[in-house]
Design a protein that fits this description.
Layout (H helix, E strand, L loop, with lengths): L4 H4 E2 L5 H4 L12 E6 L4 E4 L5 E5 L4 E6 L2 H8 L2 H7 L2 H9 L8 E5 L14 E5 H16 L19
Length: 162
């Protein structure tokens, strides 16, 4: 089996503003979505040409390229496909028959930020807007907590609640 770009990335990002609503505490200023990986991570272009990676896993926004051309060159390397697109993990999930639909992504059942493992058994397919919202809210709250704080649980409420 061989993966295609469609197995690794999402180019039709729909309403990016709505999908990134719960990340407004971190993603500020002007940006344009370039692509997203199948784990819901975004790659955002800035007006000055920089490309940033918004990680659902880490809750961080990281510069990955100084220009769109540099980003395109980098993402075509096997090393960056493994790092940014998690190609080896996606391959293993495809072998298990776990393949997200157009508006879905891979999601950790128990986020690693809450002690979940990186094992394949901890990955499921989830609605992408839901996962993006959960991760944005989770990381916003975690960033506000002192290091070493104990988390005893969390609640996912209805639509539109923050």
């Amino acid at each position: 089996m061989q993966l295609t770009w469609n197995d690794l990335i999402v180019e039709d990002l729909g309403n990016a503003a709505a999908l990134l609503e719960d990340w407004d505490w971190l993603v500020k200023g002007q940006f344009r979505p370039i692509i997203a990986n199948r784990f819901g991570d975004w790659f955002l272009g800035r007006p000055d040409g920089r490309v940033e990676w918004l990680s659902m896993l880490d809750g961080e926004l990281v510069d990955v390229a100084a220009s769109a051309a540099e980003f395109e060159q980098s993402i075509n390397s096997q090393t960056k496909q493994e790092e940014w697109l998690l190609s080896l993990t996606v391959f293993a999930l495809h072998e298990r028959g776990l393949i997200p639909g157009p508006d879905q992504c891979y999601a950790y059942k128990i986020p690693p930020a809450l002690g979940g493992s990186f094992e394949l058994d901890n990955v499921e397919v989830m609605d992408w807007p839901v996962y993006s919202s959960i991760c944005g809210q989770l990381h916003r709250q975690l960033k506000a907590m002192p290091p070493g704080s104990k988390i005893t649980g969390f609640v996912v409420d209805g639509p539109g609640t923050r």
